[in-house]
Amino acid sequence: MNPEATESTSSGPAATPGRMTLREAELWAEQQLRIREDLRDRARLDASQLVEIATGTSRVARLAHPEAALTSAQQERLSELVQRRLKAEPMQHLRGSQEFYGRDFRVTPDVLIPRPETEDIVTAVLESVPDRNAALRIADVGTGSGALAVTLALELPGSQVTALDISREALLVAQRNAERLGAAGRIRFLESDLFANLRDDACFDVIVSNPPYIPLPDAPTLHAEVREFEPSLALFAGHDGMDVYRRLIPEAHARLCPGGLLLMETGGEVTWILEALRKGFHAVQVRPDLQGIARVVSARRH
Ligand SMILES: C[S@@+](CC[C@H](N)C(=O)[O-])C[C@H]1O[C@@H](n2cnc3c(N)ncnc32)[C@H](O)[C@@H]1O
């Protein structure tokens, strides 16, 4: 994080001037957000969205009636949102939601904000199943907001999904998302360290996981939005970022039915993972994302 930016935000944004119109409110919010260098590039977009959250007006309504005045309650709300944004609080926390695979997921500080690259896991699963109505048993290890578990349950209507997370708070968020999006009936939520709390004989056709994979020493290089506002449990996995994979790969092997598929998101460092998958798996594939980073590794159990 830019230290200059931290200093310049410590006094907070200027008070809102008298009664503002929608247009003035957007300009004022943008000007305030520009104080912080690391938010400058997106200041205009963020300002527009903050006015939307504070006033409940759509972009179209704001364009049609830029002269409409904010109420004092809306102005106060906007000022509070701008202050929080200036402390690098993610827009998704201010809005309370993030879109994933075309659906709106509620997010809180207890869960990772779902990322667009994780949608590649959904695409890879859908490409690998010959029949979308098949009765698949799917496990999502480290479900967080439930983005993968809920999306797979909805895209594969014949499936039964087990959503596992070591964080009870995250599971509550995932469960609420499943209820809101109409998938709760087909997802079982379980607090568990990887597969530890599952019955011994439970086996799956598909196991997906976006585990924490950031090396702890990289923490200072992360943007403040991530480092200070997303749960450490969702981000870090030991000194080299591999701690969870080291346990996940053999445990997933033991939990897959013969021929079952394992799909994991990675941060790009796949050498160790590919080596580990040589034992007991075949059809190992690495899918790069749009930036060419190895993002999804998949493999079939023998
Ligand atoms: C990177 S987040 C992924 C969240 C969600 N699946 C997504 O893709 O947006 C990793 C999740 O794994 C969970 N987690 C970390 N260690 C775990 C463990 N040993 N067993 C189960 N879940 C774990 C964290 O609580 C967090 O919710």
Automatic annotation (TrEMBL):
UniProt entry keywords in alphabetical sequence: Methyltransferase, S-adenosyl-L-methionine, Transferase
GO annotation, biological process: methylation
Entry keyword Methyltransferase: yes
Catalytic activity: L-glutaminyl-[peptide chain release factor] + S-adenosyl-L-methionine = N(5)-methyl-L-glutaminyl-[peptide chain release factor] + S-adenosyl-L-homocysteine + H(+)
GO molecular function, one term: peptide chain release factor N(5)-glutamine methyltransferase activity
Domain spans labelled Release factor glutamine methyltransferase N-terminal: 28-96
InterPro entries documented for this protein: DNA_methylase_N6_adenine_CS (IPR002052), HemK-like (IPR004556), N5-glutamine_MTase (IPR050320), PrmC_N (IPR040758), RF_methyltr_PrmC (IPR019874), SAM-dependent_MTases_sf (IPR029063), Small_mtfrase_dom (IPR007848)
Chain sites annotated for binding S-adenosyl-L-methionine: G142, T143, G144, S145, G146, D165, N210
Chain sites annotated for binding substrate: N210, P211, P212, Y213
EC class (word): transferase
Residue ranges of domain Methyltransferase small in the record: 120-213
EC number, as in UniProt: 2.1.1.297
Pfam families, per the entry: MTS, PrmC_N
Family membership noted in the UniProt record: Belongs to the protein N5-glutamine methyltransferase family. PrmC subfamily.
General function of this protein: Methylates the class 1 translation termination release factors RF1/PrfA and RF2/PrfB on the glutamine residue of the universally conserved GGQ motif.
Protein name: Release factor glutamine methyltransferase
Organism: Terriglobus aquaticus
